[in-house]
């Protein structure tokens, strides 16, 4: 174990209602990437991206909704910037395109800008099953005859997409969680103030450090992910009376628990959660992560109590607003909705058709117009407020965890590792003023030598993220120079091989971005660089 510094963050949450770690992550996105507000969307998108390191059943998908020009794509794409090496971005996805793909989607983030009503069924199937087997008719290259050919596409990607309006298919919406961008005048004012401030002020932040903490956290999760067998909550039975027994909660509960699982995974990767390790072979262990009630509180804060219920009932974007309008205006037409809610008539028609398709409204045709009536539905009430969480945490005593461990792992090959005792936390919480007076760019970015027994060092010896030193001495730049001399270029694959997996694709991208900015390297193609002359 190295004595290098861990990540030091305030013990007081920087975002109300969130734990210090998650609040700090969102604050870093605000400071490093100039995002304003949108705490829920940032947190949700980040956690979905991190979930790609987990076994398939724990991966999450996210749909960001909002009107044209509201900034939903900007927020999502910015959140994914530190993970760019694993992102595949498409404006349109077709069934034949998926049918003919052979490269695995495992560990990838599939970013779809502006999801459409008729996204291929193959995508929904891949999101739920993680494998796509296609029997197609193809022409044999040798004989020229048409023959049957089976193609298998494996690996479930994390799918993150955006939506304007309500044109989205039921099969897709049922497999993803939705979030709505803040379109309020107050938020617009904050964004305007931020943009004018950036226009006025010279940005002296080091580009190579941008998102460094996020990349470091991602590397921690990448290291832990392969050993994770399962994630459990010993206190889960206490929730039963708070979950309504309605049909929509069959899928809705999964949306909540899967988010809580990812939050637990993130904190376990930082050495902040108990881990049960089972020894399978001399050098092989599998890990069972143990969630804390704090993770449930984080999940509810990011989902939003009301938004969770609306999501599981297939309300998204402004469809709930339209439904409420119909409740007060029985028999309303698309024109009525458009005028009443200040929407275009086409957009109002989209929402009305969506409400009808999901069973929230009925319609009759009178002359040439459809008249809509709201179906009165009593939304399920999830009783998981702050008082419930407080009682849950008070009842979750250490002996409860020990009892759960003995009951579920009676064998001698299992060990319960506790943070601070058996696991060295990679994150340290310290008391600081409630309003930070320092720029997060100048905080301690953890040197990954401080690791728990379940996370290994992602950096090669001698590599540092502090770019205030002379970068000519960086091992990465030296390797780029060597490869440029030998091959005329340095690809990401070559650099990963040179550092023998100790430097992740994200860290390579981050460091190379700094070298390019400093004029010591030039980018020639996606993931391809060469040393600059005289560097």
The CATH topology name of the domain at 314-374 reads Arc Repressor Mutant, subunit A
Give me the CATH superfamily of the domain at 314-374. Answer: Winged helix-like DNA-binding domain superfamily/Winged helix DNA-binding domain
Q: What is the second-level CATH architecture of the domain at 314-374? A: Orthogonal Bundle
The CATH top-level class label of the domain at 314-374: Mainly Alpha
Uncertain ranges: 433-473
Radius of gyration: 25 Å
Number of strands: 18
Q: N-to-C terminal Cα separation, in Å?
A: 35 Å
Name the beta content range.
15-25%
Largest sheet: 5 strands, parallel
Q: Considering DSSP H and I runs of 4 or more, what fraction of the residues is helical? A: 25-40%
Tally of separate helices: 19
Structural class: alpha/beta
Order of neighbouring strands in the sheet with most strands: 3-4-7-2-8
What coarse outline follows from CA principal-axis ratios?
Answer: globular
**Mean of residue pLDDT?**
78
